[in-house]
Amino acid sequence: MIYKKFRLDINGLRAFALISVVLYHFGVPYVSGGFIGVDVFFVISGFLMTGIVLERVDHKGVLDFYIARFLRIVPALVFAILLLMIFGLFTLSTNEYEALSKNAISSLLFYSNNYYAIHSSYFDSSSEFNFLLHTWSLSVEWQFYILYPLLVIIVKKLRFPVGLSLSVILAMSLAITLMRVTGTKEDIFYLIPTRAWEMLAGGLVYIASVRYKMPEWIKHCEVYGIVLIVVAVVILHSNGYWPSYSALAPVLGASMVILANKQNSLFTSNRIAQWVGKISYSVYLWHWPVIVAMKHYDIEFSAINIFFGVIVSFALGDISYRTIENTLRKRVKLQFNIVLFSSTLALCLFVMFTKGVSFRFSDTLKQVVEYRMDNSPWRPDICFLNPDQDYSAFSKCQDKMTEKSFVVWGDSHAAHLMPGLKSVFGNSLNITQRTASLCPPIIGLQKDDRPYCKDINDMVAKEISDNKPTTVLMSALWPVYP
């Protein structure tokens, strides 16, 4: 029963995964592939959950398993969301606060991965101000926790070999991923059919480790596994589809480290790695809100500010681990956790239905905010459309295209040029803005998460053809589009 023994190597591997993700999100150089830390987390989860499911579910039942997972994940998540909702009450506009409440609800109910697959892209700049974007991975894991015990029970009832059955499902999931059966980059990135193989890889490592006696030389696999992970962190980039063939490197690397089962490792068993590993979940919860808060207050991501941002993230994570995660995960706290979860969910629903608690602002203040939004350089909802708006929304945009126009056409990366253009040229340049979130200026492009994008581009192209403006500047975050 390996799951009962605390594995120093796995805890240290968590540290590698966390540090990769945190440094990547803070924009630290030479960690362009740091997002693979999440893939490593999935392998670890698959290994641990397979051990628990195979050894315990038959004896204590599925409900006990779900309660244990609830107590492990929910308390720290709920407190993080609760504090963010309090923060938002005093610092966010009604639209921003309403958006936060919707994101919080999707996180609490563990469908944020599905929600973001429809409404946003993880690598797109429009997601930079979503305080809870990172919770998508928790939703994937929770969905895995729901389905996995049931799957194993069915396999056992049918008397199919567990290892072989999981291998077949892994192969199917990997094939779906590599063949891009689900279609969009967002679906492949966020949804469980294309992430299950990573967790099942960890599951097969568990089965192999308990069924077969590992030779002594297998311990050397740890070094090779760590090298694979580090190389992936350094050389991979967030361009194109993910997971892809390149995801095999971190998944194989993590599997090799776990299979090596080296408990006296210089890399994973040292005190720093063990401390980081223990608080990794709480740090993961807090590091992204810290980053978004820095962007919200226009704090420059200089070396010194990044350093302090990382320190604050780890400090908040350590506090959360000691006061919340390590305290409220006990079974006797179940009723309290259910009440806290329900209350926080009710709060988020209230904020959503009251449109960001709009009554907290006077009518005069709301008019001022609307005026400032209308007159902001990128003019959101008017000349920079959100994913729910079609071409007709440009009718509110005062920019009329003529033969003398300087047209700015593209997604949020085009819109972000507006402050600079306005600052440099003022009214001397006849700028016509035609920008829309998640919509690059590519004729004929169909996007499931941006249903009006094709029509917007077709109509803008017609405008340009009819008016023949002097200059057309096209800009977008090109690498994330096919």
From TrEMBL:
What keywords would UniProt list here? Acyltransferase, Membrane, Transferase, Transmembrane, Transmembrane helix
Question: Has keyword Acyltransferase?
Answer: yes
Give start and end of each SGNH domain.
395-481
**Any one of the GO CC terms:** membrane
Q: Example GO molecular function term?
A: acyltransferase activity, transferring groups other than amino-acyl groups
A GO BP entry is: lipopolysaccharide biosynthetic process
Give the transmembrane region(s): 12-28, 34-54, 66-90, 131-155, 162-182, 188-209, 221-238, 303-324, 336-353
Cell division found in the keyword field: no
What is the protein's name according to its record? Answer: Acyltransferase
- The species this protein was found in: Salmonella enterica
